[in-house]
Amino acid sequence: MSLTQQASPGAPQDRPTRRPKPPGARRRAAETRAGYAFLAPWLLGFIALTAGPMLASLYLAFTNYHPIRGGSWIGLDNFSRLFDDSRFLDSAQVTAIYAVVGTPIKLVAALGVAMLLNSRRRGQGTYRSLFYAPSLIGASVSVAIVWKAVFNDQGIVDDIGQFFGMPAGGWVGNPDLTLPMMILLAVWQFGAPMVIFLAGLKQIPNELYEAAQVDGAGPWRQFVRITLPMLSPVLFFNLVLETINSFQVFASAFIISGGTGGPANSTLFYTLYLYQRGFGQGQLGYAAAMAWLLVIVVGIITLVFFKTSKYWVHYSGDGR
Amino acid sequence: MPIRKTTLGGVALALVGALTLSACGGDSGGGDGKVTLQFTWWGTEGRADRYQAAVDLFEEENPDITVQTSFAEFADYWTQRNTDATSGELPDVMQMDLSRLLEYGNGGLLYDLGEFEGNQLDTSTIEENLLASGRANDQLVAVPTGTNVMSLHYNPDLLDELGVEVPDWDYTWDDFHAFIEEVSAAGADLQPRVYGSTDYTMVWWMFMTHLIQRDIEPFSDTGELNFTEDDMREFISSADSLREPENVTFPADRTEQLAPKSGFTAGESAAEVNWDNMLSQSSHDADHDNLQLMPLPSGPDGEKHAFFKPTMQLSVGANSSHPEESALLIDFLINSPEAGDIIGTELGIPASQERLDSLEVEPGSPDERIVEFEERMRDEGHMTEAAPFHPDGFGSVEAEYVDVLGSEFGYGQISVDDFVSRWFSEAENLLASW
Known about the structure:
The complex is a heterodimer. Helices cover 71% and strands 0% of the residues of chain A. Chain A is built from 15 helices and no strands. By secondary structure, chain B is of the alpha/beta class. Mean pLDDT of chain B is 88; it is low at 1-30. In chain B, a hairpin with a 2-residue loop joins strand 4 and strand 5 (139-140). The interface between A and B is large, with 38 and 49 residues.
């Protein structure tokens, strides 16, 4: 046994209940207190602004609550009514198309630009800022207004289209073209996933590419065999995030359609319809039911992503 | 133990913070005797200019009262008020519509202005039956600003250009259809194309007029429907000849492109059905000072069955901390001659004859045309009916008719039958008494 143990005889075994605190315990308790104190504002905010309203909305989903008239418990009626509601089905369809078509295009655009910006080139920092700029201002009201003007009758897109022999009138009033227009707006705001891709690309060791080049692999092969697998965790992260975002699109649709979801329901996104029902018509119960259905559907989609991720997402060092 | 203590400390800290923050957001009617009122309305810029000028004058006369103004389009306006109502933060003074009055009044959201009558608020200038339109549950919850009448607006210059005559005042619905067809044919080759009118069957108030011309009072006093699916189907189908084989009504996609202007104010439609008091706003939007008014077509019995509808009303939120000052502002807007001159007929024809006589309308202005139109309608005996009863939920079923189903129908996505069955099934959810 060591000398130090003999130097402090007895005490711990004799009086286990009065054991002196190990050094640092006092500081840890202080840290805990500080931690809770710092956490408190967030925690209160979470309870008052997130958890509370969520519970309230869960309750409302089973009532026919109206902000002015009040309401009563109606069980699952809101949910069964949803599936007889043709506008609900329209809004689900619009949102699904937007998510299924828009998200992959946006990710491809983001990855493509990220790869261009990854190479060493003069003024690369400027290019990165410029490409990121649209998504910085992208969610703002002004961009949606400009976007509408660009695609409106006699807007620049209309003029160019007419030059190439397309019928005049712009995209805004044409129900077949408004959703593609919205998807373009979303794709154009690829900055956030681009930055994340860029960070991911920086992490791939250059030796891999050098080795591949020595083995005679061309750019495509390098991309498929090295870049994609090495980038798959980042790709997974962006896919999940962007899919969730695309289900929640609201501001741009609200501005471009003036809150109506028109023309002819072509921009009636799920959240926009939810807002119309809840605050336009005061059917808060119905809107709450829609909100919870969205939570469930997005939850299921995310779960599917996670379950399938083990087949295509590779983490370095997991032996795959 | 220490954890619980610090948690409590944290809670206390957060509460103090929250209270400090909320104190900043409170009303500013503090100790210095100054009062700030929120005043909001729906409408476009033209109306905003008039209201703002009147409010400036009010502030000049009442230096202790500041009025913060805001406005929105009709649909957005009600979304905002519904949101305000949910959080109990309605503006002090707000423009009210008969179609929402019972919803808000029954919900106890509006201040009973009766207590200020005869003091801060002089209502003796308003005809009793018009004033009654602002009462709910024996309380004065809204003060009507005037009356309006559903009418046909037309652009005589455009019609001259197309070589089409305006129908006579006692025209029928068939004459109206012929007129629309003639204009649309004459304007077919113009660039952009000019049409006779939008599909008027998608205007809720045209449906109301149709029912009244057939002696059907749309809603009972308790809010039940007095019309059937067949009545609505018959009305919408009555304009089938305008849609088939070629649609000669103003196209829905063009309406969408021109927004916020209408086809009429953009000069691409020669006529549109609208409330008569909207003529000044349309003239402003179209930048055209020769827009004219005429009545709607006569019913099957050759009578107009037109009715005066109370136009905008002014209400005070029940949550207002300054109801007295709010009543003063309303009194100023409806009774002050200076305010009357600024507002003109923007809020309808002033209800009292006295006020109407003192109203100085500029000769040749849209205001003058509106006053003359209502006088002529009254003198020739076309004003025969009372405005239909507006049950709780009226505004919502109107919005469903115009904004939701009207849009889908305009784009040819739903048939008349779909329109009717969907309206009736929504009405079940939207009308309080169903």
